[in-house]
Amino acid sequence: MLLKWPDWKAYGRRYFREDLLAALVVSVLLIPQSIAYAMLAGLPPQVGLYASLLPLVFYAALGSSPHLGLGPVAVLALMIAQTLGQAPPGVSPSEAALVLAAEVGLILALAAALRLDALAALLSVPVLHGFETGATLSIAASQLPVLLGSPAKGFELPALLESAWASGFAWQGGAAAYGLAALLLLLAARRWLKGMAARLAPLLILLGAIALAAGSDAVSRGVPLVGALPPLHLGLALPRLDAGLWLAMLPGALLVALVGFVSSLVVAESLGRRANVRIDARAELRGLAGANLAAALSGGMPVAASFSRSVLMSDAGSRTRMTGVFIALAMGAAMLLLAGPLGLLPKAVLAATIMVAVLSGLKLGPYRDAWRYARPEALLMLTVSLLVLCWSVTAALGLGVLGSIALLLQRTARPHVALIGRVPGTEHYRNIDRHAVECLPGVLGLRIDESLLFTNARSLSDVVQLHVNAHPDTRRVVLQMSPVNAIDFSGLEALRELHDNLARQQIRLDLSEVKGPVLDRLRAGAWQGWFRGQVFLSHHQGMEAGS
Amino acid sequence: MLLKWPDWKAYGRRYFREDLLAALVVSVLLIPQSIAYAMLAGLPPQVGLYASLLPLVFYAALGSSPHLGLGPVAVLALMIAQTLGQAPPGVSPSEAALVLAAEVGLILALAAALRLDALAALLSVPVLHGFETGATLSIAASQLPVLLGSPAKGFELPALLESAWASGFAWQGGAAAYGLAALLLLLAARRWLKGMAARLAPLLILLGAIALAAGSDAVSRGVPLVGALPPLHLGLALPRLDAGLWLAMLPGALLVALVGFVSSLVVAESLGRRANVRIDARAELRGLAGANLAAALSGGMPVAASFSRSVLMSDAGSRTRMTGVFIALAMGAAMLLLAGPLGLLPKAVLAATIMVAVLSGLKLGPYRDAWRYARPEALLMLTVSLLVLCWSVTAALGLGVLGSIALLLQRTARPHVALIGRVPGTEHYRNIDRHAVECLPGVLGLRIDESLLFTNARSLSDVVQLHVNAHPDTRRVVLQMSPVNAIDFSGLEALRELHDNLARQQIRLDLSEVKGPVLDRLRAGAWQGWFRGQVFLSHHQGMEAGS
């Protein structure tokens, strides 16, 4: 939680030290990652640093999680790289990235205003996991040529292989030496170091590489370096207002907003539960909206929460969202101190950092679990991963969401309707398939076990007709509606269709135990115009009424 | 139903006369409509006639409804026109239409093989009605310039107005005279004629217009005519195999297949219920697949069921799918007899036929009903209509489907979970908000009232936590699962998250009354790896077990 003014003193006493320490630990990881993910997105390195300043302050003011490691994120960087490719000619990637961040911010703000946080459900677990794994592999593959000093480029495997083939699988010894050495050191640090040493290792390896590159005149040996960073200049400016550019970025912005929000929400909720902090989905929308708008105004790129930095921030003991403000201050200081030296960093070392960071988050267990639990969902997960790896993130997400919905519709196409009878001697009614109950001749008691929504409404008449066909003496059908929480317009039409269909067979339709809000809604609609039956307060009254 | 060989004699005795009569009545309407809808789609007139021959025979062999008036349809013609605009340069509209029909047929055949008929639910009532109304108005608007002999063109209002403006709102006296006269006569026939006279009137008006045009040398007066039809030539040929063309037609084909299938299914089911004929959704998929593939091989265009012709076919007494075969024969005969004269028909008269046909199906009542019943769905319906009318059918359908799903996710985002207690003296448990029941201290009985699916799974832990917070003495939670019909992979993850979250608070999670198939599935998954609770056969056992 962020604190009100009178609480500052209490804050200083209770949380200040813990938050500051956590901020320093996270900053050490954020410095190389912010530069690396900016370059992954095809942007100049300083863009990643700018995206790690103001956005964190805005999230601290508007969000709800004390654990989110906000800033540039690898998976989003991949999506940004593919989206920037859609920009009209003559627009620089940095300009396009600002417009993209502005759109992401506006979309999230709109979603917060319209209370659309429920849309997070669009990304089911198979789609989200399949997507993140595919993106991880795609990012790791794209860094392999950089690690080896090869000119090959691309995120999707076919493009990458084609490009490597075209370059004759060339590589550069100096870059490869830096890259492989950094990779081995990073892996060794992960494997054998613990605590603060493990946390400082990536920064120390980076600084060592810079020192070595400076000492050995790497640039004249042809080792590709990050290159000089411009001096820190935190000016605010509106992104370029160009309708064609805004329109070209829009589809990508929608997907970046969705993935950024859902992946951040999942991390915030999971870390929040451990620390007993309540996360508010709409506050998260507002926090991410503010962060992205701040990025758009201050020379950054779209931001979200990184899984690894968030876990680190939680482990390092962050207690309030002030940690984000301290990280921003530490990043500002780092930029002032390190802007010169960072320019001397070999790109291959940065590639090693990215590969280790993303591959350490790789989880293949869920594929096995999903395969055991539900084949169609496992296939969906796998398909989404392969589409990311071989085609495009847009196609992968689009088809993944459609696939989830298709599976849902297949599962829910027919409403569950049970034939119910009276438990002897009581006024309770139960499913006749599972209880010894009594039925009345000529009156069919049916219980609708689900809300009537467009996903299942079309089959209502069919499902009821099957019961009627099995009892040809039926003169009256009483539908027990107590499990029905909602009826949408398609459900209303289905109810009317059922009513008219039964009426053609001289069968009367009555309802019982309709929930209050559902009945109010029915009465507000024009159902008096066609409904000829009665609504009973209890199913027992409904069953007895006609006899 | 279609009959087996030994039944032909019975068929001849019982249904032959009725089917033949219905076929003739429908053919009289189909002749002008097939030509008109082909031209509406931007295709030569004979394409519509070819689409009314073989496809009807294939549907008769594979489908399940004796009432579907198959062939060219106005709404599909609009979609086809917009899709053909996406064809690569150098491809004629007729060639593209064959590829489109082939793709529609293959998509429907694939859907039949994969049992995807549940996807029909994608088009909720608001989207389908909004789309059909928008398409009707767009078609009527597009025919106004043809009726008046104006060179203006276009389906969407902005393009149409721009085109009319560019032509200086020019019109042609001769065409307008034919068009307005035909319009008045058609409306008068609808208003005052009954029975067979009303059914024959459109054909007689057409023949009268042809005679007048031939006698008065309309062509030299500049009245635009349909133009000479090539002689009947029913050759079979594969559509052009060109990857670029097939890819360009694919998005349109998906939408044409979806709209064609759903609108045909709705008509078949509604007419089937009246006549007590059972409609099989998968047979409908196969029938439409066969009809569209036949159209692709025999020079036609995508086909589906026309609402007006289907109602006519049902009213005229069609008893079996043989009616479709007789219609095809009648259409073949008409082509042989009328190919010459039809070429002399003024286009303005055809435009009048289309306007009267589509506008007679216009229904505005559902907008009012939806507005009274559920504002968001009424706005969705209106938005879809306006998008069709002013932008494009693809955008309208895409955004409409997304809108339906967004409303669904908003409605179902939180699973309904009720706190339940024991009805004194029994082993029954009921919602404590609505019944006088007893609770056990330290044990929380909760009933999950819905299947756990990705639409609601993410909030499960939150919803349960609220109940736990209200009862801080909780040591055990027993979830009654009897209303849960299914748990998808996202639901399984949510259950695990709930389990782990409760475990962190030293609370044990038990389940009761888990349905057989759901429990089998859970056991097939790896849940033994993490689930530490027990599964009880009855909720009462579960509640008593710990105490």
Keywords summarizing the entry:
Transcription Regulator spoIIAA, alpha/beta, 22 helices, homodimer, 6-stranded mixed β-sheet, two-stranded antiparallel ribbon
Low-confidence spans of chain A: none
The number of helical elements of chain A comes to 22
The pLDDT mean of chain A sits at 90
Give the DSSP E fraction of chain A (strand runs of 2 or more residues): 5-15%
How many beta-strand elements of chain A? 8
Cα separation of the termini of chain A: 63 Å
Rg on CA atoms of chain A, Å: 30 Å
Query: What's the oligomerization state?
Result: homodimer
For the record, the count of structural domains of chain A works out to: 2
| Structural class by SSE content of chain A | alpha/beta
* Greatest chain-chain contact: A-B, 60 and 59 residues
Give the ordered list of helices and strands of chain A. HHHHEHHHHHHHHEHHHHHHEEEHEHEHEH
Could you please describe the fold and organization of this structure?
The structure is a homodimer of 547-residue chains. With 547 residues, chain A is α/β, with parallel strands linked by helices. Chain A folds into 2 domains: 17-407, no CATH class; 417-545, 2-Layer Sandwich (Transcription Regulator spoIIAA). Chain A has 22 helices and 8 strands. Chain A has helices at 8-14, 16-40, 45-50, 54-62, 74-84, 93-113, 125-148, 157-166, 173-192, 195-215, 243-275, 281-297, 307-315, 322-342, 347-359, 365-373, 375-390, 393-412, 460-470, 489-504, 516-524, 539-545; strands at residues 69-71, 304-306, 417-422, 429-431, 443-448, 476-480, 508-512, 535-536. Chain A is elongated and about 95 Å long. At the A-B interface, α11, α16, α18 and α20 of A face α11, α16, α18 and α20 of B.
